[in-house]
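Aim 2, interim progress: modelling of the zinc ion-bound target.
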Amino acid sequence: MLILGIETSCDETALAIVEGRQGKLRVLKNVVASQIKIHQKYGGVIPEVAARQHAEIIAPLLKKTLGRKKPDVIAVTAGPGLAIALLVGIEVGRTLSYLWEKPLVKVNHLAGHIYANWLIGRTEIRFPILCLVVSGGHTELVLMTDHLKYKVLGRTRDDAAGECFDKVAKILGLPYPGGPPISRLARLGNQKKIAFPRPMLSEDNFDFSFSGLKTAVLYYVKGHASADLSAALRQDICASFEQAVVDVLVSKTLRAAKKYRVKTVMLGGGVAANHHLRSALAKAVRDDSPNTKYQIPDTKYTTDNAAMIAAAGYFQTLKKDFTDWRELEINPQMKLA
Ligand code: KG4
Ligand code: ZN
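Predicted structure of the complex, ligand included:
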């Protein structure tokens, strides 16, 4: 079965063709047109600009992605995301479904981030699964007892982890998106140099909060504003900040993994590209729960892409979870469960 994935929820216009056979997936084509250069001028994503850009390039991008292939199913992101950006993908999906008379699958963007873990195409992944979804807009700990069965154990009460990276980058004068430049500088710094707070670390729940951490970085930087921050101090700020985020994410994930006796711990979302998070969680799972398997997506499928949308679409197709093209609508606040 060939699945066309369509993703336009934020600032990447993404299309992909994924082949699904007997529960295994193979990415045949994965095209991502990033708008980062355009949004960098503004220091963040402007929804109208994003939507216009999606609309301008999606048709030629579709031609490039499809070649001579005609998919059996169309999977499109319906939310969560920017309403006006989502609309572009939805309209393309609806049009193709009508013209080709092919079924349409309505995919939750966060389910896509989770299903990026199935794009590796080899191992059997065992349930129950705990997935830490960390992106620019979301930080959620999700329990899956079976395919497409989600229970959100906790989420951020304010900023998402990726949003916190982006805001701290802005404070330090680094470009948008902030995750990659911060993690590059963090590798050169001392993570023990500054004792930034670990918000909600010891609270007995699975929720997160990152806005206080961002404010702590802001005050620290303001306190050193009389002299320009030296290159070494900037590296130490990045390393200490990244360590604080990783400590909270790893500790809560591990606690949830034990409580729910999961067989697999997974990562998903843009922040899952972070090397330190990937390796710190790997070590924590290995040391603390040696019988639990640790599964992470290939870094190219952590940030927004459409292969992950097609992956979720494949498993929804197996359950015949289709939406008629006349009824497909965006849902900017769409929830996993
Ligand atoms: O999943 P994604 O591409 O878009 C959303 O669904 O939001 O995630 C983008 C987020 C941005 O906040 C970006 O700063 C963050 O992922 N990010 C990273 C890294 N690469 C991207 N954060 C930390 N370390 C990274 N290496
Ligand atoms: Zn995303």
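Residues 10, 135-137, 162-163, 165-166, 177-180, 183, 269-271, 273-274, 303-304 surround KG4 (ligand 1) (CB under 6 Å). The longest strand covers residues 24-34.
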